[in-house]
Amino acid sequence: MSINSLIDSLSTSGWYVWDDFLNPSQIQVIKNCIPNKLQDARIGHLDSLQDNKSIRGDLTVWLEPEMGDPIASYMAQMDSIRQALNCELYLGLRDFETHFCCYPNGAFYKKHIDNYKGKGRRKITTVLYMNESWQSGDGGELVMYDSADNELLKLEPFCGRMIFFMSEDFPHEVLPTQKKRESIAGWFLTESLL
Ligand code: OGA
Ligand code: MN
Question: Which residue out of 17, 156, 172, 188 has the highest number of ligand 1 atoms within 8 Å of its CB and is therefore the one to mutate?
Fold first, then answer.
């Protein structure tokens, strides 16, 4: 697992799993900075909360460096990855937006794409998992599909594991979790589409 493997893998297959991206104590100090008040994740501003709940059941809060040094240093680490990706892959990544997500027991996120081609600024999706005592069988797997809708991979949300994938290319879903499931999702953004 390394930045070089990340670059290789993103340019060839479009996704990469980086185990132990952060260690359990780094994850714990980040968690300690997350505000307690989370909001129902939205799928679009015109959708009712009820429509929304049948698609996704997670609660989220956007992260800011002002929330604490552990969050600031996570964002700085992601920014150095952004710069490395720009040097090697010429993706023109300008920014990174990131939020904490909590899926209560029973929650899921139905199959979706993070960005429809040519629509939004999201270019690369990142998800860092924060579940210390996760065991196989707890549900909450991330399932990724290719463009022909064949299942590509089923990933358990183990603590410290991070996945990167091209936001426009992979339909994916979160299967119903049988335990509280915590993560930080983020998106490297291209410059605004004008
Ligand atoms: C998302 C998402 C996947 C995961 O937040 O858009 O698909 O494994 N998350 O949490
Ligand atoms: Mn997604």
Answer: 172
pLDDT digits (tens, 9 = 90+) for 82-137: 999 999 999 999 999 999 999 999 999 999 999 998 889 999 999 999 999 999 99
Name which of 187, 22, 183 is nearest 103 in CA terms: 183
| Domain ranges for the chain | 3-189
Task: Output the pTM of the full model.
Answer: 0.95
Given ligand 1 and candidates 63, 97, 101, which is best to mutate, with the most ligand atoms within 8 Å of its CB? 101
* Residue 109 beta carbon below 6 angstroms from any ligand 1 atom: yes
Indicate the fold that domain 3-189 takes in CATH.
Jelly Rolls (2.60.120)
Confidence band for 50, pLDDT divided at 50, 70 and 90: confident
Distances, alpha carbon 52 to alpha carbons 92, 137, 148, 183, 192, in Å: 32, 26, 26, 19, 27
Q: Whose C-alpha lies nearest to ligand 1, atom 8?
A: 142
Of 179, 193, 187, 192, give the one whose Cα is nearest residue 81.
Answer: 187
127 CB within 6 A, ligand 1: yes
